[in-house]
Amino acid sequence: MNKESIRVIINILIAVITFTAWLRMVFHGGGTFSSRGIWSLKYYTVLSNLLCAVIACIWLFLYRDPRYERLLFFLKYTGAATIFLTFLVVVFFLGPIFGYRMMYVGSNFWFHAFIPLLCAAEFILTETQVPTGREKILAVIPMFIYGVCYLSNILINGAGEGRYTNDWYGFTRWGLPAGFAIFAFLCLVVYFTGVLFVQLSALIHR
Predict the structure, then answer these.
(1) How large is the average pLDDT for residues 190-202?
(2) Checking phi first, is residue 37 left (phi over 0); if not, alpha (psi -120 to 50) or beta?
(3) Which of 108, 115, 183, 202 is 20 to 30 A away from residue 91, measured at CA?
(4) d(C-alpha 89, C-alpha 151), whole Å
(5) What is the C-alpha separation between 141 and 205, in angstroms, rounded?
(6) Does position 206 have pLDDT exceeding 80, yes or no?
């Protein structure tokens, strides 16, 4: 089986598993903090996974056309860096606070571990192109937009408490300035994650 065939299988898996897990969350819960319905879309976890699923579908439609080779590379680069933040935040932040068992139950297993690792592995093992400086910066846009929306909601509506909290990740529990600092840090993590993936890919394909 050649590399292209393997990538086709991987992208089908990313799309099918992600949309299936999300629909399960929408109708039955059991996902990120047991969210149901459209409210599941407030989580970066869900959005980053759906972003990669959409990118996978785009790749499947366009990968045979060489005119879109660079666009597909950039999308894959952005998706891998964006979703791997989900994996890192769960391992180093949410897991210790809320417990790792909760983080990997139901749809959380696919969203927090399987899909992020699969997307990272696909990029590192199959991509050989190098992003420009502009592409490295543009890849941070999904995280930046999410951070702006997250903090703006708290500024406008307040943090709230309990099940009605607007700070579902607890990033402003140390104050709003800390929330801004955390999201700035997360943007840097996405940036350097993408750079690291490219370096790993270069080592593998050297």
Answers:
(1) 97
(2) left
(3) 202
(4) 17
(5) 28
(6) no
